[in-house]
Amino acid sequence: DDYIGYVLGQLIVDPEQLPVSAIPLPGKPTHLGIWVADPLPERTVVDILEYINIRTKIQSSEGEISIIDLELIPTELIIDGESPYLLEPENEPTDWYQFLSIVFNEISPTSDESVGLISQEPPWRYFEAQIPDFAEQGYPLSLHSMWIKIRRFPTESGSYLTSQGPLIIDDLSIRDSDQKLNVFEGFEELATIWQTDSKLSLASYSKHDITHSGEASMRLFLGSPSSSNWMVMSPAQLRDLISFPSLPAQ
């Protein structure tokens, strides 16, 4: 099954015409996050993950839509990737964190606690956003789609380049009011087929790439060379992907 995710991705002929099968989010989540890695960090003089935009579309059970932009959480503010904490009331957040309303406990980048995270090659970076409140009858919520793009980044010569990837994503997660982290999509099984909005883009399940956890992750190729274009990923309804003819009885 190492390549089956790629093969199934190629069976999607016209992704714009496939209905979306939104992924339910357990409980009443307050935050949505995802881990991203650059499998080829040596290709640029900058950290390309600093130039990524990630946007998600959240849908309520009543059909209400909310679009949220995930922010890159600085590595030095993450303890172990599993222990996010609410900002203490007596502390004032910086402007950068106003819309998030949370921070991670800050530790020294050279401390023993941080070594396990920052010593990974290539390093994983965490993106997160606060999910707005919905009316009680709007729960459960669902993840409708993700939008990803790489902005233009500088070179040593002073010019700017664009990149289509590749990128690796893993462990789509939510946190609730108790700050408990819950991975709801770890890309471990082919329970969900992710379609893209362009035949030039690719989202493929892989057991050959690095993972944030488990044995599998998702490799992305953004397709469009324009830094102004988003690659849209959405979970497809499996029953609409493939239709096999009935075989005559023997």
What is shown here, in short?
With 250 residues, the chain is mainly β. The chain has helices at residues 4-10, 112-118, and strands at residues 23-25, 31-37, 52-59, 65-73, 85-86, 102-103, 124-130, 141-150, 153-154, 160-161, 167-175, 181-185, 193-196, 202-206, 217-221, 231-236.
Describe the structure.
This protein has one domain (4-238). 6% of the residues lie in helices and 34% in strands. It has 2 helices and 16 strands. Strands 1, 2, 3, 4, 7, 8, 11, 12, 13, 14, 15 and 16 form a 12-stranded antiparallel beta sheet that branches. A two-stranded antiparallel sheet has the order 5-6. It has a two-stranded antiparallel sheet with strand order 9-10. Strand 11 and strand 12 (181-185) form a beta hairpin. It is globular, with a radius of gyration of 19 Å.
SSE inventory with pairings:
Layout: H1 4-10, E1 23-25, E2 31-37, E3 52-59, E4 65-73, E5 85-86, E6 102-103, H2 112-118, E7 124-130, E8 141-150, E9 153-154, E10 160-161, E11 167-175, E12 181-185, E13 193-196, E14 202-206, E15 217-221, E16 231-236
Antiparallel strand pairs: 1-8, 2-7, 2-11, 3-4, 3-8, 4-7, 5-6, 8-16, 9-10, 11-12, 11-15, 13-16, 14-15
Beta fraction of the residues?
25-35%
Kindly state the number of beta strands. Answer: 16
Oligomer: single chain
Number of helices, where a helix is a run of at least 4 consecutive DSSP H or I residues: 2
Task: Give the biggest beta sheet.
Answer: 12 strands, antiparallel
Structural class computed from helices and strand pairing: mainly beta
Radius of gyration: 19 Å
- Cα distance spanning the termini: 30 Å
Helix content: under 10%
Number of discrete domains: 1
Which residues form runs of ≥5 with pLDDT under 50?
A: 5-15, 81-120, 240-250
SSE string, helices as H and strands as E = HEEEEEEHEEEEEEEEEE
* Mean pLDDT value: 74
Q: Any idea what the shape is? A: globular
